[in-house]
Design goal:
Length: 461
């Protein structure tokens, strides 16, 4: 009997049949990444998937029976999903929670201005980014506008080959002597991160000729005016495609893998359980939420009571008037499905490698997050850690035990603490990522598949 613990790579244990499954799953995942670059688009894509699999809006159901499949869309930017099991709700449910927002560049409320014959848009960065990584790369424009009539207008420009893209011009090195003296946090002034938006002048305009021409183009294409920017949520994201990385196609590169890799795996895991099981024992719940990257604040975040509203609807429509929601939470089990840091072989000095996540060795299971002395951490208790590990071990799910780097080098958190505060047993469980929060994040396709396998086995437990 071997008593010591060593991480093992997944590839060496895969047979040809399982390897094919990995490739099929990750090819579909890459396709999803290229379609769902904002939280709005994520909700749209997931709703399409759910509708095809006989899920319905919970508001259309007057009564819920065992086996019913329902979802609840919250303000178009988050979605809660459930499959009703035969066990008493009072005994708790199995929850997997992920977030679908990612770092990006949003527009300020009134963003448009003209300077030196160029029309530009002022941005406000969203989430934690290294600002220099967003300079001089091709960007796509996505968003929604609600005009004065309350009509919703969708905007999508920059990802199709026939469309123009956008960018922020960085200062050329020949003139960047003073810029290069500043530290990394300061040498890109966020107020100078303006999108290049147009250069042709309107011959009839008396002033701001380029701006007027751009506004005419927007009005013709979308029927909007400058004031409508204040009625919009418009973001700029990388316009390049997600794709396999490496000569062996072992890695996946793409924007927004934090945390859409876990969100996608959660939905696919739930659908697979429905194919495998004739009857669902314990109610399955998925929450795919917004605003995690800026502190989980707001009515589409995990902090909103909209999730409580969803649970209340499940209890009421199931006819279980005697179910205490607080006791339901107390008896529930959850995986906080968020990505974790992978040990970067080039910068391994910031990682405690013994407690780090190695790409290709499985889904990351993290007892606690936070920083320093576990500050702002959600710290799972030993009994629950053991329960989750046992589920994975019995089902041959490759997992590794990790932390978010060396003490004092940084840290981070997830939505885990929010459900933990309700009494739910929670542990963080997600895909290791390199270059997290960059425009092109990197995962192992084997870890992505094993994330899906972890969620599938958890839902069935």
């Amino acid at each position: 009997m071997k008593l010591s613990y060593d991480k093992e790579d997944i590839y060496s244990k895969l047979d040809e049949k399982k390897f094919k499954k990995v490739d099929e799953f990750t090819a579909n995942y890459i396709n999803f990444l290229n379609k769902a670059k904002t939280e709005y688009l994520c909700v749209e894509e997931f709703t399409k998937i759910l509708d095809k699999n006989k899920f319905v809006d919970i508001n259309t159901k007057s009564k819920l029976e065992v086996g019913d499949r329902v979802y609840f869309v919250n303000k178009e930017k988050s979605i809660f999903i459930a499959v009703i099991g035969k066990d008493n709700l009072q005994n708790g449910v199995n929850i997997i929670g992920a977030h679908i927002d990612s770092p990006r560049l949003d527009l300020k409320p009134m963003p448009m201005y003209e300077n030196k014959g160029i029309c530009l848009l002022k941005t406000q960065f969203y989430g934690g980014i290294k600002k220099y990584q967003w300079m001089s790369i091709p960007l796509a424009m996505y968003g929604v506008v609600y005009n004065e009539k309350g009509e919703k207008i969708k905007i999508a420009i920059g990802d199709e080959d026939i469309e123009p893209c956008f960018t922020i011009a960085d200062l050329l090195p020949h003139l960047a002597k003073d810029q290069m003296k500043a530290n990394a946090n300061e040498f890109i002034d966020p107020e100078k991160m303006s999108i290049l938006f147009g250069n042709i002048k309107d011959k009839e305009a008396k002033e701001n000729k380029v701006k007027e021409n751009v506004l005419k183009i927007l009005n013709k294409k979308y029927g909007i005016k400058e004031i409508d920017f204040a009625r919009s949520e418009i973001s700029f994201v990388p316009s390049f495609k997600a794709k396999y990385v490496g000569i062996d196609s072992s890695l996946i590169g793409g924007y927004g893998q934090d945390d859409r890799v876990c969100a996608y795996s959660t939905v696919q895991a739930m659908l697979e359980v429905l194919k495998e099981e004739k009857e669902i024992k314990r109610t399955m719940v998925a929450m795919l939420v917004d605003k995690e990257e800026i502190g989980s604040i707001g009515n589409t975040s995990m902090s909103t009571e909209a999730f409580d509203l969803f649970i209340n609807k499940i209890i009421a429509k199931s006819g279980k008037k005697d179910v205490d929601k607080l006791e339901l939470y107390y008896n529930s089990k959850m995986l906080s499905a968020d990505v974790s840091t992978g040990v970067d072989p080039v910068f391994e000095e910031v990682s405690d490698v013994q407690n780090g996540n190695i790409l290709g060795c499985g889904v990351a299971l993290e007892k606690y997050t936070g920083s320093g002395g576990k500050y702002n951490a959600s710290d799972a208790n030993a009994k629950y850690v053991s329960q989750v590990m046992s589920i994975f071990e019995k089902n041959n799910v490759a997992f590794q035990l990790g932390t978010l780097g060396k003490i004092g080098k940084g840290g981070g958190g997830t939505i885990a603490y929010i459900l933990a505060n309700k009494g739910v047993d929670v542990i963080d469980c997600g895909t290791p990522v390199l270059a997290m929060h960059s425009p092109f994040e990197i995962t192992s396709k084997f870890d992505v598949y094993m994330t899906y396998e972890a969620y599938r086995t958890f839902f069935k437990s």
